Amino acid sequence: MTIQPLPRWADLVLLPVVNLAVALLAAGVMVWLVGQNPLEVITVLVHGAFGTPRGLSYTLYYATTFVFTGLAVAVAFHGGLFNIGGEGQAIMGGLGTGLVALWLSASLPAWLMLPLMLLVGALFGMVWAAIPGYLQAYRGSHVVITTIMFNFLASSLLVYLLVNHLKVPGNMSVESAPFAKSANLPGMHTFMGWLGIEWPKSPLNTSVFLAVMAAVAVYYLLWHTRFGYELRATGSSARAAAYAGIHPNRQVIMAMGVSGALAGMVGMNEIAGVNGRLMLEYVSGAGFTGIAVSLMGRSHPFGIVLASVLFGALFQGGAEVSFEVRGFSRDMVVMLQGFIVLFSGAMAYVMAPAVARIVNMMRRSAATAPSDKGAAHG
Amino acid sequence: MSDALAVEMIGISKRFGPVQANADVSLTVARGTVHGIVGENGAGKSTLMSVLYGFYTSDSGSIKVFGEDATIRNAHEAIALGIGMVHQHFMLVETLSALENVMLGAEPHVLLHKAEAQVRSRLTELMESTGLKVSLDALVGDLSVGDRQRLEILKALYRGAKILILDEPTAVLTPQETEQLFGVLTLLREQGTTILLITHKLKEVMRLCDHVTVMRGGRVVEEVAIASATIEGLAEAMVGRKVHMGRVDDSEQPAGAVLLQAHGIHVRDVMGVVRLHDLALELKAGEIVGVAGVSGNGQSELLEVLSGLLAPGQGHLIVGESRFDAGSWIDPRTARKIGIAHVPEDRHERAMVMNFAAWESAVLGYQSLPKYCRAGWMQHAQMQEATTNMMERFDVRPRDAQLLCASFSGGNQQKLVLARELGQAPRVLLVGQPTRGVDIGAIEFIYGQLRAMRDAGCAVLVVSSELDEILALSDRVIVMNQGHVAGELPIAECNEKTLGMLMIGGGRGKAAIVSKGAPA
């Protein structure tokens, strides 16, 4: 028995769609088993996520963060590294964004302040990822282990700084003082207002454009620059990279650095865009969701954007479902997300042989029917 | 029954998409003979054997084994019929012992220690009668390649194989191990085992086989008894035209200026084992220097040191005006810059990135050249155009620059790598195993290209484990033994005997030094 490989379009588009369908089907069965109507749930979910400008805004707000963390995972992955530290790098990014805002927002105008926040946030994330990169390249500590540990370090550091240094005295909640106005990224309703379009107030802010730009930039970086060429060469074969005069060790650090910088940009959405102050829990698992997003998006920026919107829709639509549908708790939504991660991440290729067989069968009948020439197609 | 046929395959056809891998192939193998199946890559010999072993089901045709009609749908059914196969890439678990590997999947008892005892006694008998000696308790990971192959054969015999299919068995063996293998196969034949030998080494066919089937383009083009076959005839049948594999009688031209000098090179590996010991070497313009030696005597390290992949502990290197000492050794990037091109031995892991498209691997190592990269941006159009030209010049097939490197056959991958390295007009060309896994037709072409480089004034160093290749290409031969130059001979004094003696090493180094002074 031979398994013929899937054509590229099927691998990139068809397979994820099939996986998603299977996941929804499995989740639907679960929903049905607990006595709910799957159709009602999915209707509410889709409507909640996309049906209203407000729902759509929330969906895209969540997606923005996932794009950053998903891209972070993808860049590392192309460099042959599994960066599980997106969570910690995003926390550090937010911390960098917040610290520079607390320090300078009173004295700098927005056009200077916001780019500076982006830069410092990315820098914090970069350094936080480059350290495990260095440890892997020169000290042989595996990056999967160290990045996980660095997640805890980042989270603890944030708590320490907030509780002991940044918290406003007399305030009950653990959060810093609010930034001056110049450090707040305009919300989408403000932005649309400039264009004369009415848009409901929501956490969605202009960092969504930054996310799209980041996705485009990552595409060009990976496939159109020498940096990307050398990164992918190292990721595919360190020995071939060494042969090509590339320093695999240095490449590991740089790949992790870029990866961390992307994760660090989460701060622009959560800190500069939404909260306007430093606080706890602004990443809340998005670093890990990024892994699922990257897996589902086949580590391609375009796929990652699509997968981010899907996960954003699940978060937003799921919240809506737990609100609207009686007896459908938040846990059921988590279960639904779990199925999607399972089928399109961990079991991404379980369906591949079946899909390949069907695709090849269709091709064969298409190839033999119209012409006898037997079009040579690799 | 002595003249019964072991295998009859009649009218086998197998198609993969648009590729007709086997077209109406018939094969008859007499019991107790060694039957060679030769052909270039893609000629369909592996497909045919996979049909026999049950990996593929043929589209049409029938199979008889020992005179009985057989349908073979998987390896289990093949084994049940007495067919065993030794794959080119061994199917062994490295972390299990030799004994456990044989037993795996065929445990004769539910209790492991009883099963082991039974298998051990049976295997000891087998080893006695066949001369296949393997230390049963060693981990497979610790065994040499030759040992692993013997273990694979033992495994097949243990499972009752009376028909043994060997896929390119000597591709990974040293000459000595090849000798041993041939001894074993001859013995097995005497004991009545039928052997099917897939190979492209015609010398081995002539030595070992009783019959030979030549395949080309999915069809059988010739089937002869070895007594009436010649190497030239078989080669012609394989390729479909006359091929010349041996030495081209070139007009002797004196070698030119010294382009590369290495002195006192010492290399220890991570385990502290000495790999190169006080090695010295000179490469001159317009000559091909062949490096002969049993695999693992430092040839690979020599290539890595000269190409900058490995920094030696001691020694220095002079290339043109540049001098490199042990502390600040040349790196691959600098090496390319000063005109050293390197075709690595290991095509899959070094020379290409297998999941890159051909046009991406076609600039590997040269990705910083201004024509491929401007201000950090890769120039896709130029890269693709250059690749198309390389493919045209070196006849890489299929001529599709977009195809993944892994999708090309070994020979075509090698041609693409050669095209890349030769295309930069290097002053020094280092080539490891130029034709490993390459078809005869392509070998002839590659030899021609290497000679053309020499004639253009390039200093060429060829490391090869094939003595024939060394003899066919070199103007001067260096023999390595235990990380040291055991001797150096002008080609006029080289033959299998003189080189073979130096390769084994020992006190014969002296003879080499004497003959070194002799006029060429």
Brief synopsis:
With 378 residues, chain A is mostly helical. Helix content of chain A is 73%, strand content 0%. In chain A, helix 4 (86-104) packs across helix 11 (248-264).
List the strand order in the largest sheet of chain B. 6-7-8-3-9-10
What gross morphology of chain B would you assign? globular
State the CATH superfamily name of the largest domain in chain B: P-loop containing nucleotide triphosphate hydrolases
Mean pLDDT of chain A: 89
Number of strands of chain B: 22
Helix/strand class of chain A:
mainly alpha
Could you list some keywords that capture this structure?
heterodimer; A: 378 residues; mainly alpha; ABC transporter involved in vitamin B12 uptake, BtuC; 16 helices; 73% helix; 0% strand; disordered C terminus; B: 520 residues; alpha/beta; Rossmann fold; 2 domains; six-stranded mixed β-sheet; 34% helix; globular
Provide the fold topology.
The complex is a heterodimer of chains A (378) and B (520).
Chain A: H1 8-33, H2 38-51, H3 53-78, H4 86-104, H5 110-139, H6 143-166, H7 188-194, H8 207-224, H9 226-236, H10 238-243, H11 248-264, H12 266-275, H13 286-296, H14 301-324, H15 330-346, H16 352-368
Helix pairs in contact in A: 1-2, 1-15, 1-16, 2-3, 2-14, 3-8, 3-11, 3-13, 3-14, 4-5, 4-6, 4-11, 4-12, 4-13, 5-6, 5-11, 5-12, 8-9, 8-14, 13-14, 13-15, 14-15
Chain B: E1 5-16, E2 19-30, E3 34-38, H1 45-52, E4 60-65, E5 68-70, H2 75-80, E6 83-86, H3 98-103, H4 112-130, H5 145-158, E7 163-167, H6 175-190, E8 194-199, H7 202-208, E9 211-216, E10 219-225, H8 231-239, E11 258-268, E12 274-284, E13 287-292, H9 299-307, E14 314-319, E15 322-325, H10 332-337, E16 340-343, H11 347-351, H12 358-361, E17 373-374, E18 377-378, H13 380-393, H14 410-422, E19 428-432, H15 440-455, E20 459-463, H16 467-473, E21 476-481, E22 484-490, H17 496-504, H18 509-516
Helix pairs in contact in B: 13-14, 14-15
